[in-house]
Write a structure and sequence with these properties.
By secondary structure, the chain is an all-alpha fold. It has a single domain, classed as MFS general substrate transporter like domains (Growth Hormone, Chain: A), CATH 1.20.1250. It is 78% helix and 0% strand. Helix 1 runs antiparallel to helix 4 and helix 8 packs antiparallel against helix 15. The two termini are 32 Å apart. The relative contact order is 0.17.
């Protein structure tokens, strides 16, 4: 690809990329300061931390499938704008409540739940909007750049969040998350690339349109294996995340800034993964990048529960970085594949179906993590989640992906699957 063909010169994509970058930075600040606020200020128990984590992802399970139908019926950019501004407004209520002495854990859970509803619509819209914005030929490049932003945010956000929480207090640090979503919306407002009108749905009932999306996902053996792998991995990851702040603050005896630093360094692997994802898809093929890279990197997350206070915290950081590297390479390869094979009229439903299945397990993982934390302890729960993560690649190894090098790149109509 020449410089002239690069998305660096695409004004609409640059604005989407800029908006996504600040939004992701705010998201990862929030993923640090909200649990810190619950654990250190509101004295949340392991069960309550699990409930908070579940609320952050519950909407994917509750409305994930119909959201795809609604996204396919409207233009996607206006829906993304409404989601961004709604998330900003909701999160700004947290510091307001803190300033007036009214903040409770219940409010944090409700805000997290409502933000997750807006996130469902934003994420499904964004993955369905990208092909019409940049064209299918640029999907790997576009997804790699967006994943790079997410990975950089994963490094910068926790460190910034921990520092802000240490300096200003965790409730005040939530402001950064709300402002990130506001800035994202302002960037999206400036995109001038025309968006095609949604294709008519012919009055088909909601249930029939949901079923068509499900048939497309489950009718493709490679897509089915990808979905099963990702859903299991997200469940296991959320078990770990639900206890992560408690593990770092109570078992590893880290303060807010230390938590931010560990999460930032652990996220550095994702940055490298985003920068090298295109390399791996070219050298070993897109199919092999989907299964081979996480096969090597996922078991290394077991280093996290083996770490102790002191120098061995570095073991946990190394494990987190290695796992994050594999996850990002996997995501660039599999998301680009999903977008490439799906016809435009089904993009919203395909993405929503996959999101429902792979993100719908996350609230269940949060609840399971909270229950296990109460039952067997925080460290043992982190160990169980990391052990499950290390074997989630199995569906891919039992699928046609294992014997393929590259994947087909032409959209397939739903009646072919």
């Amino acid at each position: 690809m020449t410089r002239r063909d690069s998305l660096w010169l695409h004004p609409g994509f640059r604005l989407l990329w800029a908006g996504d970058t600040v939004s992701q930075a705010g998201t990862f600040v929030g993923m640090t300061v909200l649990p810190l606020l619950a654990a250190t200020v509101l004295s949340a128990t392991p069960g309550e931390m699990g409930l908070l984590t579940a609320a952050e992802n519950a909407a994917f399970l509750l409305i994930g499938l119909p959201a795809g139908v609604w996204v396919d019926r409207v233009k996607r950019r206006p829906l993304m704008l409404r989601a961004d501004f709604a998330r900003a407004a909701l999160l700004l209520t947290v510091p307001l409540a803190w300033w007036t002495g009214l903040l409770t854990l219940t409010q944090l859970i409700v805000v997290s739940l409502l933000v997750s509803v807006a996130t469902v619509f934003f994420d499904v819209s964004y993955q369905s909007y990208l092909p019409s914005l940049v064209g299918r030929a640029h999907l790997v490049e576009g997804n790699a750049k967006l994943q790079a932003s997410q990975s950089v945010a994963q490094v910068v956000g926790p460190g910034l969040g921990g520092g802000l929480a240490q300096l200003l207090g965790a409730a005040n640090a939530v402001l950064a998350t709300g402002l990130g979503y506001l800035a994202s919306g302002l960037f999206l407002l400036r995109i001038r690339t025309p968006e095609p009108d949604p294709q008519p749905h012919g009055g088909a009932p909601l249930r029939a349109q949901i079923a068509e999306g499900l048939r497309f996902v489950f009718g493709n053996p490679a897509l089915r294996a990808i979905t099963l792998c990702t859903s299991t991995a997200n469940f296991a990851h959320t078990v770990v995340v639900s206890m992560q702040v408690l593990f770092l603050t109570r078992d590893l005896e880290l303060g807010p800034s230390g938590v931010g630093l560990v999460l930032a360094l652990g996220g550095a692997g994702g940055v490298v993964g985003a920068l090298t994802a295109g390399f791996w898809t070219r050298v070993i093929g897109q199919a092999r990048a989907i299964w081979l890279v996480p096969l090597v990197t996922s078991p290394l997350q077991l280093l996290l529960p083996l770490s102790q206070p002191g120098w061995s915290v570095a073991l946990g950081v190394a494990g987190m970085a290695a796992c994050g590297y594999g996850v990002v390479v996997y995501n660039v390869a599999q998301v680009s594949y999903r977008q490439a094979i799906c016809p435009d009229r089904l993009l919203g439903r395909m993405n929503a179906t996959v999101r429902f299945l792979v993100w719908g397990t996350m609230p269940l993982g949060g609840l399971a993590g909270g229950a296990l934390g109460e039952l067997i302890g925080v460290r043992a729960t982190v160990l169980a989640g990391c052990a499950l993560t290390s074997i989630t690649v199995l569906p891919l190894l039992l699928s046609p992906l294992r014997t393929a090098r590259d994947l087909p790149g032409q959209p397939a109509e739903s009646h072919h699957v």
